[in-house]
Design goal:
The protein has about 210 residues and is an alpha/beta fold. About 25% of the residues lie in helices and about 25% in strands. The chain has a domain of about 150 residues: P-loop containing nucleotide triphosphate hydrolases (Rossmann fold), CATH 3.40.50.300.
Length: about 210
């Protein structure tokens, strides 16, 4: 279970939100600048809230003035909006980078190549990929880590309608099989993620409403 109640302040901007999420999925909605990325980064430990707490599976990730676990100590993986592929590594090497050295390549690797239409690109390097292809490689690398808390920031960015539906179906199947707590920040048509258990809408005034 993920339980969060945080306030994060910047000049002219305040993110204030509170929610509880069991082994469920949540869609984060709201206009650009409403704090979706900030919230994900706080959960991942890449930014520190000013007030509040974050608890995951009965462990404090953050408690004001007392606890702030580093990202490496959280059972969490964040797929960011920025291109984070290693330019000197192939698609295959990028995908497998986070796995333990000399470990067996999991069956999930081949399945992700197939479902994300990456098989023909397996030995390509990032400079030969389009923006949408890079996003799919980043998503595959993120899913291969099988974190307990999975955070996806605009995973549909750069994808056409067919691929958006394909990725949505993959994420739903992945959630059902591995059962992470899953949060997705997205601007795509919300019906693509109609399977989400909850929807958290960040308003322009930075107050959050759970639907």
């Amino acid at each position: 279970m993920l339980e969060a109640s945080i306030i994060k302040q910047y000049p002219g901007f305040t993110l204030e939100t509170a929610f509880v999420l069991e082994r469920e999925t949540m869609l984060l909605c709201g206009p650009s600048g409403s704090g979706k990325t900030t919230l994900l980064r706080c959960l991942a430990g890449l930014e520190q809230p000013d007030q509040g707490y974050i608890i995951f599976d009965n462990q404090y990730f953050f408690q004001r003035k007392k606890i702030n676990l580093s990202p490496s100590l959280r059972q969490t993986t964040l797929m960011s909006q920025e291109d984070s592929l290693f330019p000197h590594l192939s698609v295959r090497q990028n995908m497998l980078y986070s796995l333990p050295r000399n470990s067996t390549v999991p069956n999930l690797y081949s399945e992700l190549l197939r479902q994300l239409s990456l098989l023909p690109l397996e030995h390509y390097y990032p400079d030969a990929l389009s923006g949408g292809e890079k996003r799919r490689v980043m998503l595959a690398r993120t899913l291969l880590r099988r974190p307990a808390l999975l955070l996806l920031d605009e995973p549909f960015s750069g994808l056409d309608d067919k691929l958006c539906r394909q990725v949505s179906s993959l994420l739903y199947d992945y959630y059902l099989y591995y059962r992470p707590v899953l949060l997705i920040a997205s601007h795509v048509q919300h019906e693509l993620i109609s399977w989400a258990n909850q929807r958290l809408t960040l308003k322009e005034n930075n107050k959050a409403a759970i639907c």
